[in-house]
């Protein structure tokens, strides 16, 4: 049998490559979803991972870190939050 | 609520109703501004045995970036628990409600902290400065700058 392909549609899925806790501890929405202010997940609403390995939606974490009361600490372990370089 | 964190409070409410921690129950949560949460101390601490206490949580639009305002409220048959860190007007001196707040805390985790603060207490007394504090206390406990001086109780 000979088949001729007229047309094909590619479909793919994606997933942030971060296995720990599946939801952002700040907004409680899945990492693969968005922070409360974004509409589209993915590169528009990225994750941020600290040297302490704790991850959040970047926008959620920045809301926290810009408050004075955060004292620059990770919400999970209360160590100074430094973005992991790798 | 600005910032769209109502979704998170909605999830918290579902969790509190569907998978409640032992001794913690929602008495009233009709909106995302004020919730009343009832707590019981589960061990047989004689100071609190058989009693139910009521916590009031008040959420600003900045929750959970900012801590909720949490205090005990009295009602018919419901007293303010006696504890060296709980004032007779219901204000609670507990670091997670102030400088120790983190946005990963939840209503449930705060209620559990307070529950264990009661469970571990063996002093049937009010804070030493209760009368003075209550006479001049701001309406919101968040406007008090508590000094967390004693972690042993």
Account of the protein in words:
The complex is a heterodimer of chains A (86) and B (153). Chain A is largely without helices or strands and 86 residues long. Chain A has one domain (1-86): Zinc/RING finger domain, C3HC4 (zinc finger) (Herpes Virus-1, 2-Layer Sandwich). Chain A has 1 helix and 2 strands; from the N terminus they run E-E-H. Chain A has one helix at residues 58-65, and strands at residues 47-49, 55-57. Chain A has a two-stranded antiparallel ribbon. In chain A, strand 1 and strand 2 form a beta hairpin. The longest helix of chain A is centred in the C-terminal third of the chain and has 8 residues, at 58-65. Chain A is elongated and about 70 Å long. The relative contact order of chain A is 0.17. With 153 residues, chain B is an alpha+beta fold. Chain B has a single domain (2-143), classed as Roll (Ubiquitin Conjugating Enzyme), CATH 3.10.110.10. Chain B is built from 3 helices and 4 strands. Chain A binds chain B through residues 25-29, 36-37, 60, 63-64, 67, 69, 73, 75-76, 78, and chain B through 3-5, 7-8, 11-12, 64-66, 99, 101-104. Chain B: Residues 4-153 form the UBC core domain. Chain B: This is Ubiquitin-conjugating enzyme/RWD-like protein. Chain B: InterPro entries: Ub_conjugating_enzyme, UBC, UBQ-conjugating_enzyme/RWD.
SSE order and pairing:
The complex is a heterodimer of chains A (86) and B (153).
Chain A: E1 47-49, E2 55-57, H1 58-65
Antiparallel strand pairs in A: 1-2
Chain B: H1 6-18, E1 24-28, E2 34-40, E3 52-58, E4 69-73, H2 107-119, H3 130-136
Antiparallel strand pairs in B: 1-2, 2-3, 3-4
Domain RING-type (chain A): 35-78
InterPro entries (chain A): RING-box_E3_Ubiquitin_Ligase, RING-H2_APC11, Znf_RING, Znf_RING/FYVE/PHD
Pfam families (chain A): zf-ANAPC11
User: Helical stretch count of chain B?
Assistant: 3
In whole angstroms, how far apart are the ends of chain A? 51 Å
Examine the coordinates and then state which fold CATH places here, giving the name of the CATH topology of chain B. Answer: Ubiquitin Conjugating Enzyme
**What does the overall shape of chain B look like?**
globular
CATH architecture field of chain B = Roll
Mean pLDDT of chain B: 91
List unreliable stretches of 5+ residues of chain B: none
CATH topology value of chain A: Herpes Virus-1
How are the strands of the largest sheet of chain A arranged? 1-2
Q: What oligomeric state do these chains adopt?
A: heterodimer
Radius of gyration of chain A: 18 Å
| Beta strands of chain B, count | 4
Which structural class fits the helix and strand makeup of chain A? little secondary structure
Distance separating the two termini of chain B: 36 Å
The first-level CATH class of chain A is given as Alpha Beta
The helix content of chain A, as a percent range, equals under 10%
What kind of sheet is the major sheet of chain A?
A: 2 strands, antiparallel
Tell me the series of helices and strands of chain A, N- to C-terminal.
Answer: EEH
Domain UBC core (chain B): 4-153
Protein name (chain B): Ubiquitin-conjugating enzyme/RWD-like protein
Organism (chain B): Myxozyma melibiosi
Keywords (chain B): ATP-binding, Nucleotide-binding, Ubl conjugation pathway
């Amino acid at each position: 049998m000979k088949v001729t392909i007229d047309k094909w549609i590619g479909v793919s899925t994606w997933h942030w490559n971060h296995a720990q806790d599946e939801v952002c501890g700040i907004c409680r929405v899945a990492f693969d979803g968005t922070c409360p202010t974004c509409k589209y997940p993915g590169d528009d609403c990225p994750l941020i991972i600290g040297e302490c390995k704790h991850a959040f939606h970047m926008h959620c974490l920045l809301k926290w870190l810009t408050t004075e009361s955060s004292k620059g600490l990770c919400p999970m372990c209360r160590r100074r939050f430094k973005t992991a370089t790798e | 609520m600005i910032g769209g964190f109502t979704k998170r409070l909605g999830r918290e409410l579902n969790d509190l109703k569907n998978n409640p921690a032992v001794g913690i129950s929602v008495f009233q949560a009709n909106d995302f501004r004020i919730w009343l949460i009832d707590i019981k101390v589960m061990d047989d601490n004689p100071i609190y045995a058989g009693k139910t206490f009521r916590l009031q949580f008040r959420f600003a639009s900045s929750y959970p970036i900012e801590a909720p305002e949490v205090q005990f409220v009295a009602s018919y048959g419901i007293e303010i628990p006696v504890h060296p860190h709980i004032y007779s007007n219901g204000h609670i001196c507990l670091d997670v409600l102030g400088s120790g707040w983190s946005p990963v805390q939840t209503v449930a985790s705060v209620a559990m902290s307070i529950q264990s603060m009661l469970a571990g207490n063996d002093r049937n007394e009010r804070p030493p400065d209760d009368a003075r504090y209550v006479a001049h206390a701001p309406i919101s406990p968040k406007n008090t700058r508590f000094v967390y001086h004693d972690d042993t109780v």
